[in-house]
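Re-run with default settings, no changes from the original entry. Doing this only to confirm the output is reproducible before filing.
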Amino acid sequence: MDIDAEAAGGSGVRASAMPIVIGQAPSSDFNDPLGLMQDCHRRIERFLQVLLVVSKSRRGEELSADERDALETALRYFRKAGPLHNADEESSLFPRMRGSGSAEAAAALLTMDHLEAEHRLTSAWHEEVDALGTRWLENGTLSREDSNRLCLLVDELDATYRQHIALEESGVFAVAADCLPADAIAAIGREMARRRDIDSLPLSATSRCAARRAAAR
């Protein structure tokens, strides 16, 4: 199940002159929640690329049908799936790492605090991007002032996400894969599923990432 494409309201949408396809299928599932979080990162990167291309190529001018579809889908993704992804980390992953008693997890505490602060910052930026993008879709054009503000916000998001995602994947996800037991990782997957109103999952007792870790020993 492509949970992020579902949240965005569709899949396979191609924007005119855009070098990506929206809504690609994830390589992981809820049995591998850490892998699924990384899949969400790839979608963040792709949908952000849509916002970058549309905002900078059109500069508030009238959009083609394909560009409108791409902008609508990207805005919807960040509006719906973005908060879910933050909750996956802040409500399911980070608390278990903080309570794990692992020295590696303890060393990552400041990193997690920093990441949570950036979630607040990027969420505020996304709210403004959503308001500007919605205004563009409703009115057909944007003023120069609004267009410049949209481009600035998207640039800020791009720069922040590049560092944020790299830090999460190397400084948090990798540590979690090493320090969290299989039952904790399985519980994270169940919580992620429930967050998306998916109640029945064929979750195994040992997650895929835990199985990979055991095989490497």
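The chain has one domain: 3-216. The helical segments are 3-8, 33-58, 65-98, 103-107, 109-139, 144-179, 182-195, 208-216.
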